[in-house]
Predict the structure.
Amino acid sequence: MSSDSDTSIPAPKIQLTPQEWRTRLTPNEYAVLREAGTERAYTGEYTDTETEGVYECRACGAELFRSTEKFHSHCGWPSFFDPAKSDAVILRADDTLGMRRVEVLCANCHSHLGHVFEGEGYATPTDKRYCINSISLRLHPSDSAAH
């Protein structure tokens, strides 16, 4: 049964057929971004990265998160306390796997990014942890990080 809030989600700006996504993405990227899979904990390239820059959606290139909002949560995936822009992501109820979670989607192409958790006691300004798959992101280092 889908949530009533799902009907209020606007259509993605980028809409491709599954075959078009498959030609754009690797099989592992497709499994996470388009089929809501999850990469194994502690295997993603950005889990412990401290490079300054902007994290974009690997599927469409939309800006999602910034390194200034990234923190070490020690959960095995990159964690952020806030998206780069309030409208960069869409939050959707996720009742799969027998639990209630909140899925994080790219607002631009509706690709699966991960989940957001709240009230876990992290000392962040929002008390939220956007737990995001590295494979869903592409980091563009800032000019200062390149020097």
In short: Residues 33 and 112 are 5 Å apart (CA to CA). Confidence is low (pLDDT under 50) at residues 1-6. The first strand starts at residue 53 and ends at 57. The chain has one domain: 14-146.
